[in-house]
Amino acid sequence: MPDGVHLGSGKIRELYALDDARLLLVASDRISTFDVVLPTEIPDKGRVLTGLSGFWFARTKAIAPNHLLALRPDGRSTECRKLTMLPIECVVRGYLAGSGWKDYQKTGEVCGHRLPAGLRESDRLPQPIFTPATKATSGHDENITREQASTLVGAARFDEAERLAIALYNFAADHARARGIIIADTKFEFGVDAGGGLVLGDEALTPDSSRFWPADEYAPGGPQPSFDKQFVRDFCEKTGWKKTYPGPELPQEVVTGTRARYIEAFEKLTGIGFTRYLENPLLVLAGGA
Known about the structure:
Elements: E1 5-9, E2 13-17, E3 22-27, E4 32-33, E5 36-37, H1 45-60, E6 68-71, E7 77-81, E8 84-85, E9 88-95, H2 98-107, E10 109-110, E11 113-114, E12 124-130, E13 133-134, H3 146-153, H4 155-177, E14 181-192, E15 198-201, E16 210-214, H5 230-238, H6 252-270, H7 274-279
Antiparallel strand pairs: 1-2, 2-3, 3-7, 4-5, 6-7, 8-14, 9-12, 9-13, 9-14, 10-11, 14-15, 14-16
Helix pairs in contact: 1-6, 3-4
């Protein structure tokens, strides 16, 4: 990037400094599963992540301020405010799946939330719950309790993050359900701006940070079909891979199927054809609150 200084690489994104107050996030087409970046990319995946995040940022800024300043014409680059990120993942669960389901089977709880007995995998919870996790520098993020998270960020900041995360989830879940998608759970990242305010950053409500299920196929009692990278996870599980680097190459049918799922989620949630987005990324910002 000729106009930015490269600061680092994440699993999916490249990070550049534009100046003292602005960053540029570039979403690649890399895909990771079980915290390992796979050797095969998913074409246009980065544009789906960037476009969907922009769509949600534009519509939720009355609930929580966010870091978005601009989308660039390539559809995968976001100019954003520089923040000091909280050291926790802010996960909201509306349904019992993934690590939450595993924890519930062992203890009847998820991150300190005691849940009703007899719930099945993929059951809808009585109400959404906030289940923080660590940000692991290596290995897997780990679910932690309210008390552990409060120790990391402070009780008042934790309460604010919980309130905003659940409000964001409820707004998005209602929007998505009306368009045929269940958001089973999602992960938010918050940071603190120069004035001390809590700001939504990173990405929001994408197939990478969320579990998206087709509403017309929802059948609790087991795993659900999905619009997210569960398709890739399922393939990787079947290979006998030990979930350590390097990951397996993805066959073309998995690449094609994953790309199609990401784009279908984008189009259902935004109401915008993906080709139209590629021609004019600013379409996702139109009509935002």
